Amino acid sequence: MIACALLSACSAATSGSEPDAHAEQSAALVTGPSFTQQKTVLGFEAPTAWSVSAGTRTASGDASRGAKAVALAGADQAVLTSPPIQKLNGVSAKLLLDVKLPASVPWGQVQLYVDSPQSGIHHQWVGLATLQGLSGGQYHTLSFAVSPTLQALLSQAQNVVFKVEVNRPRPTPTAATLVDRLRFELPAGIPDCAENSAIFINVERGPAFSEALLEKVQCRLYDMYPVLADRFDRQAPTSLRLLLETHGVAGAGGNLIGFNVAHFTENPNDLDAFVHEAMHLMQSRYLPGVPGWFIEGGADWVRNEYRTPGTPWAVAPEWAPGMHYRTGEVVSFFNWIDAHYRVGQTPLVEALHFILLERTYTDAMWVELTGVDLDALWLEYSGDQAPVGVPVGQGVSFFQDPDYVRLGSTLPVGEYDATRLGSYGVVNDDVSSIKVPAGFAVTAFEHGDFSGAQHTFTADSPQLSVLNNQISSLIVTEL
Asked: Which of 164, 236, 283, 361 is least enclosed by beta carbons within 10 angstroms?
């Protein structure tokens, strides 16, 4: 779990529904331009999406960046035509294109056109770049100037089509010319991984931090944030603030992601933490009242879905004493629910995410999505080992916030060390109010082994004046 010490905004505060209903709900909430389309199309990551006027075009793994390029063969002259791109981002004064010839050619050229009839752009010629004299067997970057008038049009245009006309002699009928990375030139200081991105990251400097590692942080966000936005919220912010800080680990809220430079200097392979924080920005439109444990657990589940192979972060594989869904060890729990109660349906985290964008959270949502209530799911997941608290009034109740907000659990008479407390969902060092019914008392301890500072409560305490957020073990007695 990623600690939310930096930004408080890191935590926001019927059975067997048909999966199609949730799919419709999801589609309604993510309408808008794709965050990944421009990068996928202009980066030639989907080469077969481009049509060709003559010869053949196939996917090639010999890319100048990314995984794929398009290979043109079978004709001296061919026009590649892109699918319409809903909206362009990062429009600038120069378009760049990478080309790799099989051999040097005595003549040849590439011409570039754009088309968006609904926006007043009709087969607009952008420019021409020569291929003559370029060496074969390596990529070369061609440059096309974009006039100020065309820049203004493209910045507002919808459904823009690009046409790349390649004209050169072929040394052999099967020799292929590779084309890759059509992109607008980036401003100085912006890493190459931002090309064709739907987002912009503004770095807010703080303490000194490795420039190479800062670029990796930005690239993890440039790569993953658009993917998450396409899946979870196409209304997500497109302009992000990245704040370099000196405390906590990481946190997110609104359009801001902050991180502790010391932590990531010491843990440079922890970059998937920014997938977790990016998901928090997708969750920022939840209606009030969503439990913090689900927000954190949902972001952990997304991080695990998109984790970088070989990184040290891992999730608990199964229930163990001391675990409770309210303590955040829920990724495997969510996966277990999907495997047992949602086979062939949208994953639970994703389905509940879209519901929470429309409706106020209730415990009934678990029954709606699985047919079973939350505590029963947790008990089954644990193999009937997880302890269950008693109803309020039949024991001592512990709350995470003052004035009896955010119930942890109500505990019967007994002794509870740190592990047993965790099994009941009472979070260590996170109790701020207690309800003690008549006939009960509770002795609370600072440490998890019944040691350290202690205090006995015999009446309700809406705001703890002692051991506030310091309780790690306790003994409930009956008077």
From this structure: 361
